[in-house]
UniProtKB/TrEMBL annotation:
The lineage of its organism: Eukaryota, Metazoa, Chordata, Craniata, Vertebrata. Residues 139-309 form the Helicase ATP-binding domain. Residues 28-59 are annotated as: Disordered. Pfam families: DEAD, Helicase_C. Its EC number is 3.6.4.13. A motif (Q motif) lies at residues 98-126. Gene3D superfamilies: 6.10.250.2170, P-loop containing nucleotide triphosphate hydrolases (3.40.50.300). InterPro entries: DEAD/DEAH_box_helicase_dom (IPR011545), Helicase_ATP-bd (IPR014001), Helicase_C-like (IPR001650), P-loop_NTPase (IPR027417), RNA_helicase_DEAD_Q_motif (IPR014014). This is RNA helicase. GO terms for molecular function: ATP binding; hydrolase activity; RNA binding; RNA helicase activity. It is found in: Cytoplasm; Nucleus.
Amino acid sequence: MATDSWALAVDKQEATTDSFGSLVIRSLPRGGGDAAPNKAKKGTTKQVENGTNVEGEEKEDKAAQSLLNKMIHTSLVNTTNQVEVLQRDPNSPLYSVKTFEELRLKDKLLKGVYDMGFNRPSKIQENALPMMLAEPVYYPSGSRPQNLIAQSQSGTGKTAAFVLAMLSHVDPTNKWAQCLCIAPTYELALQTGKVIEQMGKFYPEVKLAYAIRGNKLDRGAKLQEQIVIGTPGTVLDWCSKLKIINPKKISVFVLDEADVMIATQGHQDQSIRIQRMLPKECQMLLFSATFEDSVWKFAERVVPDPNIIKLKREEETLDTIKQYYVLCSDKEEKFTALCNIYGAITIAQAMIFCHTRRTAGWLAAELTKEGHVVALLSGEMTVEQRATIIERFREGKEKVLVTTNVCSRGIDVEQVSVVINFDLPMDKDGNADNETYLHRIGRTGRFGKRGLAVNMIDSKHSMNILNQIEEHFNKKINKLDTDDLDEIEKISN
Ligand SMILES: Nc1ncnc2c1ncn2[C@@H]1O[C@H](COP(=O)(O)OP(=O)(O)OP(=O)(O)O)[C@@H](O)[C@H]1O
């Protein structure tokens, strides 16, 4: 896999509100077409809906469950073994009865997958990949692809799933753009690009282009790269004004963080304009960890005949992330509580979310005075600065990242063991922003790792927001006394 990297810029990320759902894996009844993928769909639907297990594995799963419980109480930092155990627990979003071989991937891709250290697919990968890889379904009016709208918890392998699907669909002998993936921010586009590069490492014929502001190409310059990842504004320019991509030749269209793309007016307009230029046979894939009610409806309207993978509300939060709140009277006390937490437990890396740039700046300075190596990331920075900060954090050069909402979505840093909501996420009306909460805490607990999320409460209003979050996810968030070091130590055991 080769890349053309250019210098870049970004589109803004916005948070959305509210979500709902019950777990459904809905495959539309199809006339004719490929029987194999439909078979696969049926099997997986039953397994997920009934929560039943594959015959003969029940005992093994019970043992796995008890082992899992033990592990949950032993260490904050996870091991590969634990991932394997979770992949055998039918209640885990990482559960899978399949292997990557069964997904009949090209050898070059299978090699790439194993090279990334993936042993088995996760639940979303197991369910979504057969649909995404299936042949188009034949209708008398013409063949139609298997479109998909999919929800799965943060860090459960959605990106890896659609990247694999794109790489599988590409015809490397054709030197034009065939797969188009749009992400809401520059950082996410870059990160997804890296996953494409990594997974396609043994498939060098397939090339990738970044459609991000700052990548200057001349009008009419024909793109040779088969996969394009970018932000909506630039992708739209490349498809329409600049005619760099011929949208009629796109066969796979992916919207990552689909809910924010749909709920943010500017992104929605641009995404829809792009979508309208695509041919009827183009496969549409929409992914996110959260979908607000109205966004689901909108998505179902714009995506023809979608297959749907949806979570029940109570499944949206990951059990591997422990959630607490701490009562304080003001920001100074919140800072003391934070220092106490740091004093009591070993934190690999932490992300701390603040409501304003001002608080984030103040907190970063205070933490630095205390001797922490801190990075500060906020929206007013240039995209290049932001990318550099995230890269340094990912490499572990800084152990603490203080940020506003810029980073709440999608950023994948394996070592984040603690997320602190120094300020709770709220929408512009001062109500709980449940989606942002879920995305923020999802920066820890990546792919089966254990994580800790601590919410700082300093007013009736913030307590109220916490209660709304508890109610929304139907999950109790326990109080933590940060003056009691023994108690803090306990939560990491
Ligand atoms: N099958 C797998 N086996 C092991 N690790 C995996 C597997 N699939 C993905 N991962 C790893 O798990 C982490 C999370 O995966 P990914 O970023 O695809 O999740 P996501 O659902 O897209 O997350 P988010 O909701 O935050 O965007 C990544 O570090 C990825 O490399």
